[in-house]
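User: I've been trying to design a sequence by hand for this structure and keep getting stuck. Would you show me what you'd pick, starting by listing the structure so we're on the same page?

Assistant: Good idea, let's start from the same input. This is the structure you sent:
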């Protein structure tokens, strides 16, 4: 299974138009061509914010090619695009990444349960060169348990399969609200066990397994239903 993460830089004043396109005009077209959009957000903070962010799920790359070949041959798409752009492109730039599920991604107990509101967080985590196995062990044994203990719901854990800076782990989690996010982040940063583990990594390997981090704070899009399993296929 693969996922496709799209981040759109939106023209000033056009974010509401993007939401309207996705809420009003695209659902029937997506259903017709089998486009499975499993999450939509506005990026409130992060690089190039505000941005429109959405996540798509496919069985494999061949499935993706089939889906979009039909979509782009559909005259309704070109009509919708022209009508909703209304003479001016609403999307000024788009960044696209292919993701594959990471083995550390815990399966949701109720994958079809909707994720309620709150503040979501998209993290692109750079991994130290040659340290993928160590980073995955650190992720499973230390980082994800800390996130959950701090109040985050882990929605997705992925390896970057294609895109800029491929040696990355991508995490998507949900916090009940901004206050819980802020308190949770402070709790994680001050955790004695984490500080000790990071010191060990620096001492033994000259670096930490997790390096530079890019974070987007996300607001779930109006009308979007984001489910706990993110459309993940059964094991």
């Amino acid at each position: 299974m693969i996922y496709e993460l799209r981040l759109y830089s939106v023209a000033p004043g056009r974010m509401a138009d993007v939401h309207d396109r996705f809420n009003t005009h695209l659902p029937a077209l997506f259903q017709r061509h089998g486009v499975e959009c499993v999450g939509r957000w506005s990026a409130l903070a992060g690089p190039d914010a505000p941005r429109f962010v959405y996540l798509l799920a496919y069985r494999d790359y061949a499935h993706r090619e089939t889906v979009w070949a039909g979509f782009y041959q559909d005259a309704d798409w070109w009509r919708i695009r022209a009508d909703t752009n209304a003479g001016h492109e609403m999307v000024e730039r788009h960044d696209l990444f292919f993701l594959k599920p990471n083995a550390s991604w815990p399966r949701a107990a109720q994958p079809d349960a909707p994720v309620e509101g709150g503040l979501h967080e998209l993290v692109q985590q750079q991994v130290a060169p040659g340290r993928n196995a160590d980073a995955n062990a650190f992720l499973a044994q230390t980082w994800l348990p800390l996130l959950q203990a701090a109040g985050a719901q882990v929605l997705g854990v992925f390896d970057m399969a294609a895109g800029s800076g491929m040696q990355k782990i991508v995490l998507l989690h949900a916090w009940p609200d901004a206050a819980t996010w802020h308190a949770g982040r402070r709790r994680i940063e001050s955790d004695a066990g984490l500080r000790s583990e990071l010191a060990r990594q620096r001492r033994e390997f000259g670096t930490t397994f997790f390096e530079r981090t890019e974070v987007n704070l996300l607001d779930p899009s109006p009308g979007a239903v984001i489910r706990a399993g993110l459309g993940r296929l059964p094991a």
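That's my pick for every position. To get oriented when you compare it with your attempt: The mean pLDDT is 94. Residues 132-149 form the longest helix (18 residues).
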